[in-house]
Design goal:
Oligomer: single chain
Strand order of the largest sheet: 1-2-7-4
Order of helices and strands: HHEEEEEEEHEHHHHEEHEEEEEEEHE
Strand content: 15-25%
Mean pLDDT: 87
Number of helices: 9
Distance between the termini: 65 Å
């Protein structure tokens, strides 16, 4: 019998992550890209005989490296929680959150209020693992896999397995697929990273539905390959020398590159990315290199900091945000960034772990249809959806309310999202739907369709799980939010 690993985590830091795991609502950013390519090789340091870059080149290289490294450095927070010594957690074991996100969960922006979540860090350095997927035919269910640079691997979902239980093998880049005697005909997913994050999401209709959803959390299991096939486990990997905790949101220092260098060891990068790394290595940035700010002169340190500052501006304040009717327009590259490194960095800054748009689409608004800021301290609003304008989602859709800091806020009826799973919604006779978005009740007869807003500025995120082709190709247009004063 296979040794199936299960673990209930009590770490408050990890539970905060799990309760707020989501993708962001900032979409449709037109960002220039660099790099790309298909084949992968390991990184090697720069030629020591190369010419030293000029100060202007120091600044440009720093900016480029910072943008490239942002997803890895943000991801480091969770990797460290799982893998650092004495963390109290285990790799290759799911840890579960049994509750929906609520006000006060501030570790991750735009938390979803749609699913209960589980997380596991798959340590594939010694051997692959096998993920057991239960039969989940009556609700949205999916295991998202992300590599070290936060690119998505194929989603594991029950409907993709024919709505039956299945086992899926996940391997690192150095594992020899050809040598594996796949007698069970397992689906094999081979990552370019030896450390992979697995995020399980199970949809929940309401608080009473949570116990049923947690059954599927418990039935989603991880087994090391040696346990699965009954062979001798490989030797344990060497212990790691972990950098200190680092928060790029609050720390703009060059210590960023120490964490970036550390994270790069877990990924096999493409040939085209080696061209970038040849430049980065001139600043001692790269896998196997040691970044020390004191290695550089005062003038070099100054321009390095300027490069960091420029990168942070480009990440935090992206240009060319596309809107239609006040809503952001989903970018097809969301969750599948390829060589669009700036877009990937922006998503990492505003909310890690975006699902690919084929799995879920996020459409956000902080302005009404006339491009005025949404502010419930002075206005009431409606979202009017004609029958042919209801969000076209194969699984479900939801509209979630956030304050101006993209966090859930308390309200008198304890309602943070509303959608097609809300059995209390009151549709009009023609099948259309009017949602009331305001800080005070619209009246008892309309409260079934009320999404409470804070007494101030706010933003909305429409989530479509399993969006149809009209969403993916941009032909679906969500009506704008209207004044209802």
């Amino acid at each position: 019998m296979n040794k199936l690993l299960k673990f209930e985590c009590t770490s408050s830091r990890l539970l905060s992550y799990l309760k707020s795991l989501t993708a962001i609502g900032v979409c449709a950013l037109f960002i220039t890209a660099c790099g790309g390519g298909d084949s992968a090789t390991n990184y090697s340091s720069n030629d020591p005989g190369a010419d030293k870059p000029s100060l202007a080149e120091f600044q440009e290289i720093t900016e480029s490296a910072y943008v490239f490294g942002m997803p890895m450095v943000e991801h480091y927070k969770l990797v460290r929680v799982f893998l650092e010594p004495n963390s109290g957690l285990l790799s290759n074991v799911f840890s579960h959150s049994r509750a929906l996100a609520r006000p006060g969960a501030t570790l991750v922006v735009t938390p979803n209020n749609d699913t209960v979540s589980s997380a596991a860090l798959l340590d594939l350095r010694s051997e692959p693992v096998v993920i057991t997927v239960p039969n989940v035919a009556d609700r949205y269910y999916g295991v998202q896999l992300l590599d070290i640079v936060t690119e998505n691997l194929p989603i594991i979902a029950s409907e993709q397995q024919g709505s039956v239980a299945a086992d899926v093998l996940v391997a690192g880049p150095d594992w020899d697929v050809a040598s594996f005697d796949n007698v069970n005909q397992l689906q094999i997913i081979q990552a370019d990273s030896s450390i992979v994050l697995a995020l399980l999401r199970v949809s929940v209709s309401n608080e009473e539905d949570i116990p049923a959803a947690t059954v599927f959390q418990d039935e989603t299991l991880i087994t090391t390959l040696s346990d699965y096939i009954g062979s001798t486990p490989p030797s344990a990997v060497e212990a790691l020398d972990w950098p200190p905790e680092y928060n790029a949101k609050s720390d703009d220092s060059a210590d960023f590159f120490t964490v970036m260098n550390f994270m790069m060891q877990f990924h096999q990068f493409t040939n085209d990315e080696q061209l970038l790394f040849a430049e980065f290595s001139q600043l001692n940035i790269g896998s196997g290199l040691t970044y020390d700010h004191d290695d550089f002169s005062a003038s070099e340190q100054s321009v390095i900091q300027e490069g960091i500052d420029d990168a942070r501006v480009s990440i935090q304040f992206p240009s060319n945000l596309a809107r239609v009717n006040g809503w952001s327009v989903p970018n097809p590259a969301l969750g599948d960034f390829d060589d669009d490194y700036l877009f990937r960095a922006i998503i990492a800054w505003y909310g890690l772990y975006a699902l690919p748009i084929s799995e879920a689409s996020y459409i956000s608004a902080s302005v009404d249809v006339d491009s005025n800021l949404l502010d419930a301290s002075v206005n009431n609003y409606t979202l009017d959806l004609a029958p042919d304008e209801l969000p076209p989602a194969n699984y479900f859709w939801s509209l979630t309310m956030y304050n101006s800091q993209s966090q859930l806020i308390a309200n008198p009826i304890d309602r943070y999202s509303i959608g097609d799973r809300s059995d209390f919604l009151d549709y009009n006779d023609d099948g259309s739907l009017t949602l009331y978005v305001q800080s005070e009740s619209p009246g008892s007869s309309l409260e079934s369709n009320w999404l409470p807003a804070p007494d101030g500025q706010f933003r909305l995120t429409m989530r479509l799980y399993g969006p149809d082709e009209s969403v993916r190709d941009g032909s679906y247009i969500l009506p704008g939010v209207l004044l209802n004063n």
